[in-house]
Automatic annotation (TrEMBL):
Its cofactor is thiamine diphosphate. E1 component of the 2-oxoglutarate dehydrogenase (OGDH) complex which catalyzes the decarboxylation of 2-oxoglutarate, the first step in the conversion of 2-oxoglutarate to succinyl-CoA and CO(2). Residues 598-791 form the Transketolase-like pyrimidine-binding domain. Belongs to the alpha-ketoglutarate dehydrogenase family. It is an enzyme of class 1 (oxidoreductase). It comes from Shewanella japonica. NCBIfam families: 2oxo_dh_E1, PRK09404.1, PRK12270.1. Pfam families: 2-oxogl_dehyd_N (PF16078), E1_dh (PF00676), OxoGdeHyase_C (PF16870), Transket_pyr (PF02779). Its EC number is 1.2.4.2. Keywords: Oxidoreductase, Thiamine pyrophosphate. This is oxoglutarate dehydrogenase (succinyl-transferring).
Length: 940
């Protein structure tokens, strides 16, 4: 087959096989980098016959064999009348021309005109010079085959080829895409860039639209600067092209059928985007600058953290826009945005990502400096997290905060090099060329929709003021800011260009400026495409103004629960289970039949089944969520014969809610942020993130501090995310014991989230169901057990699941004479069973044990009810496994004091204060554990 391909190629080529030098140079180039030769030659060399029966993957093939092989094919071709006369010298130069073309595709961006200020000191790339390839002035008027270069005819004069290459790859656009391995993607980009020489051909109406965007960007910044001098606004000036860029992206996406776009961005230019793209009324922004605010509950947040939603009219229909609220930890919003997009796509049943698109806007220092960016890139094609690609824009003002040298903020040539890890194409573009910006914006949307992958736009611009308007930038960048002071604004540069080419008159330019300023004075929306929101696909109304103790229907008919139990243990016979998993499911069959008590994994799975039967969505992610870190869940069953998977939970009813259980990438921060974003866009179902070990959640502390715990108070954003954090002291050392309960309790206020420590299967069943059935949507933090998953005392009955409810406090269950009780021990979690076991063995009858299953919001009424029979007791103890400075003691003891009778005393039984969460020596752990149990039970 390969001989036929090559013979056909040789017969149609200008070569007849006589040019051995040509073949050898081509082959050497191919061996160094296959992409450096034309695609035709790649086919030829890819199909070379194996040497001595070995694979063609072996890189080196003797040149003499290649030459002889081509000669034999050429002779064979001549015998069939295909002989042609060639010029060996010209053929050799033809190779060099093709190498020159590839050099521009690979490295043209390094000599592109990208810096509006002209400050970049970039070394000349010798491979871009025809002389480097042995092509001289005499060759400039010769015609050469252009190979796969997609411009003009198949043959052009070398001078025209060079001119076309410089225009395409060394102009206002620097295209990096040859790192992509997929040939179709590279060819697609070439077909978009090369025929037009990297330039757009816009009509006058489009040019005017671009100018209007620049006019709006500059006009608002100047207005704010004059009206509120010195106020922080993180001006967009210098990067004004972001506004027309965003508008072109919206138009293009709307034409392609996109219905929703979620945007995440940091401070720089945020106010400008809010007013000039999303359509926030300037009057509202001015009130915020003046310090006015609505008398609403909550702390609020600074102007440049605020989000906004609106609808934007495009020729293809209205597009719903949502700008995510953003804390000062800049890049952490990116996975939140992606999670929100995934939820919207799932709700729409959109599998290809076309209907909902994310846009994330980065700073040049932040995109390369913040690890969360790498984590989000890593998720971009992962099964449980992909959204059909993101458009990532970098506002590259060439300086981070006050850093004076880019070598201080990164170790790579470009701040966007991080994107190469997922083979995303990167388009650097000079922000002072707004038509190039618009051209790349449209190309980016088309690429994303075509290949369902991330694409990066590096908007190379500058920052006209300091990091904020009170900062003096010339202190650290004197040369840059000397240049900036003399540099015309992007609006003026483009307006002058349009006037010069007679696309618009000077009077019209002045009229646009005045009209926009008048609109700002009026305070009304300045975005003519703005429309009232009608495209919402989710209604949050049922979940607003709800409280944590609101009543709800917790119970269900036992018959219904029995039916669900049978459904989730019904496994096809052809699906062969691993032996240990088979034993688990054999036990679950007995539990479903009422022959065995219900264990943790079965109760948890029943909770999901009941939610799904109610047609609500369930989403669970974590590093071992399918099976459960501690081998207890096994909701995803792997066939031992062929590796296929089966989810019994997808078969609980003919019509049921969707369920996704996905083992996540090895990340806490990005995945938790993703799930937070998902939950903020999907209030109806149950969204769960499970930590592999609870301690690992500290890698996501930013998400907890700046979104989960405070998002409602700062931004009014409700979120029903559930976090399962394995917690318990079993002697596994400092990093596998504690989920840092104290950190969550310290963040609790204003009923912002729930912190629960369930101790029985019935409790976890009701707790999970409550998170969906109850109409309140606030985060649920669960100190999830490890040893209790298989503890013989931590069991429940199906009746407790069907007819019970979540108990925030569980009182004394043994038949003690309450009047003889002299001490009451409060505790949470697995330590209860150790206390209970020791008390029974020691036959202690004067000490009662109460479990606090919900530490926040603290259940005062339930606690009072549980203590009703112990009002005579003066000795109360809080017992915990955690060190004294950790756990619930410091954060919750005021609740315990408020609950105990007047005049009673409250003491502590637990480990001493410690810098580490737990000890690492098993013997020391056992001794400490015995001491705290004995202390609580008054044993020596």
């Amino acid at each position: 087959m390969h001989q036929g391909i090559m013979k056909a190629w040789l017969e149609s080529s200008h070569l007849s096989g006589s040019n051995s030098t040509y073949v050898e140079e081509m082959y050497e180039a191919y061996q160094e980098d296959p992409s450096s030769v034309s695609e035709d030659w790649q086919v030829v060399f890819d199909n070379l016959p194996a040497v001595n029966g070995t694979s063609q993957d072996i890189p080196e093939t003797a040149h003499s064999k290649v030459r002889d092989y081509f000669r034999s094919l050429a002779l064979e071709g001549r015998a069939k009348g295909a002989s042609r006369v060639t010029d060996p010298e010209l053929d050799a130069k033809q190779v060099k021309v093709l190498q020159l073309i590839n050099a521009h595709r690979f490295r043209g961006h390094q000599n592109a005109n990208l810096d509006p200020l002209g400050l970049w000191q970039r070394e000349s790339v010798s491979e871009l010079d025809p002389a480097f390839h042995g092509l001289d002035a005499e060759d400039m008027q010769r015609e050469f085959n252009t190979g796969s270069f997609a411009y003009g005819s198949d043959t052009l004069k070398l001078a025209d080829i060079v001119k076309a290459l410089k225009s395409t790859y060394c102009g206002s656009i620097g295209a990096e895409y040859m790192h992509i391995t997929d040939t179709d993607e590279k060819r697609w980009i070439q077909q978009r860039l090369e025929p037009s020489l990297g330039k757009a051909n816009y009509d006058i109406s489009t040019k005017k639209r671009i100018l209007e965007g620049l006019n709006a960007a500059e006009g608002m910044e100047k207005y704010l600067g004059a009206k509120f001098p010195g106020a922080k606004r993180f001006s967009l000036e210098g990067g004004d092209a972001l506004v027309p860029m965003m508008r072109e992206i919206l138009y293009r996406a709307g034409e392609a059928g996109t219905k929703e776009i979620v945007v995440g961005m940091a401070h720089r230019g945020r106010l400008n985007v809010l007013v000039n793209v999303l359509g926030k009324r300037p009057a509202e922004l001015f009130d915020e600058f003046a310090g006015k605010h609505d008398e609403v509950q909550g702390s609020g947040d600074v102007k440049y953290h605020q989000g906004f939603s609106s609808d934007f009219e495009t020729p293809g229909g209205n597009v719903h826009l949502a700008l995510a609220f953003n804390p000062s930890h800049l890049e952490i919003v990116n996975p939140v945005v992606i999670g929100s997009v995934r939820a919207r796509q799932d709700r729409r049943g959109c599998k290809d990502g076309l209907q909902v698109m994310p846009i994330t806007i980065h700073g040049d220092s932040a995109i390369t400096g913040q690890g969360i960016v790498q984590e989000t890139f890593n998720m971009s094609q992962a099964r449980g997290f992909k959204v059909g690609g993101s458009i990532r824009i970098v506002i590259n003002n060439q300086v981070g905060f006050t850093t004076s040298n880019h070598e201080d903020v990164r170790s790579t040539e470009y701040c966007t090099d991080i994107a190469k890890m997922v083979q995303a194409p990167i388009f650097h573009v000079n922000a002072d060329d707004p038509e190039a910006v618009a051209f790349i914006s449209q190309l980016a949307v088309d690429y994303r929709n075509e290949f369902k992958r991330d694409v990066v736009i590096d908007l190379v611009c500058y920052r006209r003021h300091g990091h904020n308007e009170a900062d003096e930038p010339s202190a650290t960048q004197p040369l840059m800011y000397a240049k900036i002071k003399k540099h015309p604004t992007p609006r003026k540069i483009y307006a002058d260009r349009l006037i010069e080419e007679s696309s618009i008159s000077a009077d019209d330019v002045t009229g646009l400026v005045n009209t926009y300023r008048d609109s700002l004075d009026a305070g009304d929306c300045v975005v003519k495409e703005w429309r009232p929101m009608t495209l919402h696909t989710v209604d949050w109304t049922p979940y607003l103004n709800r409280e944590w103790d609101e009543s709800y229907q917790a119970s269900m008919e036992l018959e219904r629960l029995n039916n669900l139990a049978q459904k989730i243990v019904d496994i096809p016979e052809s699906h062969k289970l691993q032996s240990r998993v088979a034993k688990i499911y054999k036990d679950r069959v007995s539990m479903a039949d009422g022959e065995k008590p219900v264990d943790w994994g079965f109760a948890e799975t029943l909770a999901y089944a009941s939610i799904l039967e109610d047609k609500k969505r369930v989403r669970i992610t974590g590093q071992d969520s399918g099976r459960g870190t501690f081998f207890h869940r096994h909701a995803v069953l792997h066939n031992q014969n062929d590796g296929t998977t089966y989810l019994p939970l997808r078969n609980v009813a003919d019509e049921q809610g969707e369920i996704d259980i996905t083992d996540s990438v090895l990340s806490e921060a990005s995945v938790l942020a993703f799930e937070y974003g998902y939950a903020t866009a999907e209030p109806g179902g149950l969204t769960i993130w499970e930590a592999q070990f609870g301690d690992f959640v500290n890698c996501a502390q930013v998400v907890i501090d700046q979104f989960l715990s405070s998002g409602e108070q700062k931004w009014g954003r409700l979120c029903g995310l559930t976090m399962l954090l394995p917690h318990g002291y079993e002697g596994q050392g400092p990093e596998h014991s504690s989920a840092r309960l104290e950190r969550f309790l310290q963040l609790c206020a204003n009923h912002n989230m729930q912190v629960c420590v369930p101790s029985t299967p019935a409790q976890v069943y009701h707790m999970l169901r409550r998170q969906v059935v109850r109409p309140m949507r606030r985060p649920l933090v669960v100190m999830s057990p490890k040893s209790l998953l298989r503890h013989p005392l931590a069991v429940s009955t199906l009746d407790e699941l069907a007819n019970g409810s979540f108990q925030s406090v569980i009182g004394e269950l043994d038949a003690l004479d309450a009047s003889k009780v002299e001490r009451v021990v409060f505790c949470s979690g697995k330590v209860y069973f150790e206390l209970l076991d020791k008390r029974r063995k020691q036959e202690i009858t004067n000490i009662a044990i109460l479990r606090v299953e919900q530490l926040y919001p603290f259940p005062q009424e339930e606690m009072q009810a549980a203590l009703a029979d112990y009002q005579h007791v003066k000795d109360f103890v809080w017992c915990q496994e955690e060190p004294q400075n950790q756990g619930a003691w410091y954060c919750s003891q005021h609740h315990f004091w408020a609950a105990i009778p007047a005049g009673a005393q409250l003491t502590y039984a637990g480990r001493e204060a410690s810098a580490a969460p737990a000890c690492g020596y098993p013997a020391l752990h056992a001794r400490q554990q015995e001491e705290l149990i004995n202390s609580a039970l008054k044993l020596s």
